[in-house]
Amino acid sequence: MDRFRSITIAVSKVHSSEAIKGSTPPSIIIGEKNYPKVPLIYNIPPGVQGDQAKEYEDPKGWWGKKSLNEILSLRSQMISSLLKKVDINDPFKLYEKEISLAGVSYKPVDSNAVSDKKGIEAKLRFDGVLIPRGPSLEVNDIKVEDNPKLSPHLEKFIFDDVKAEEAILELYRNGEDYYKIITGLSLGLFGLKKNRKLVPTRWSITAVDQAIGKYLLPQIRRFGEIDEVEVYYSSYLGNYFHIILFPSTYRSVWVEIWHPLSLWANELIVSDLSEDYWGKYDFLDGGYMASRLAVLEKLHERKRQAGVIIIREITAEYYAPVGNWHIRETTKRALEENKIATFEGLRDAIKFVNMRLKAKDKVSLEDIKSIKKLLVQTSIDSFLNKK
């Protein structure tokens, strides 16, 4: 009912014959449908202007403060202004109209979208990777009526003729907001100028995760190992995370436990994947890539390497997907703020975590394939020490 009320409020502020007026937080999505002629979604909360618009898309600010229902309510109040068939090979057109610059502004940008279409499609759209979007209306044009405010580092790379990966890493090293880097890549603001293209937002999230991980991991492999087994914990939006770091060269295991009636699960489901020392993983999983980046950042900060086990438990409290940002942020908070135990042996840490699971009576972590492999594997170091 709250979501319905929010949608009704948003729709009531707009007449199809008029412009949708307000400030984008900013919030822009490049879709994948009909590639290479893709949709651009420019989100505006009607009637909301200036700094008040920021909370409508603020993953870092939301974490730990906004409930799932509050996030859905905020997203329901934004109108998705839909520009269809945008050519991915012409990002300069969006730059000329300052649409792409509005997308990477660090302050909300006054905007309006003009439409001659009838009727707003009044429904929410959910996604496991992208933040939900609200009611949508196909528009003829989007006008940016304010000056976007860009960070100096980001603005520099819009004009520099360097490869996109170089731009991503340099921005990352200079402390640019992670989500701005994703949007900048998606809107074709980085890269060799002759090669620049729009990138569907879902793809750009994975590309940035991979580029930063590729940069951090070789450095981490040169560091010394941690001295003891460490267990960290955090939770948010019905997702419960335990992270185990153990003395080892880098390797990683990701386990997801989906409770009945949670998203996409009518019965208890357990899935896992593993990543080896060289950064080769079983398959690409957006949730793992988000959590993995937070772990790599923490190991790099500590100048240590370790074996990693990440256990994500998803309960029925998480009744609607809001993207994978919360996975990254929750993992980060756990490693920064909440070490809950240390152990001498990995098996003891795994048993400890197992007893803390909400599904503890139905799941044996030691019997999960990827974890079992860690426990029975004899390392070269231990073999040499026995000799």
UniProtKB/TrEMBL annotation:
Pfam families in the cross-refs: Nre_C (PF04895), Nre_N (PF04894)
Domain spans labelled Archaeal Nre C-terminal: 276-383
GO biological process, one term: DNA repair
Keyword Glycoprotein in annotation: no
Family matches, as InterPro entries: Nre, Nre_C, Nre_N
Residue intervals of the Archaeal Nre N-terminal domain: 1-264
Keyword check for Ribonucleoprotein: no
UniProt entry keywords in alphabetical sequence: DNA damage, DNA repair
Family recorded in the similarity comment: Belongs to the Nre family.
Function recorded in the entry: Involved in DNA damage repair.
PANTHER family, alphabetized: DNA REPAIR PROTEIN
Protein name: DNA repair protein
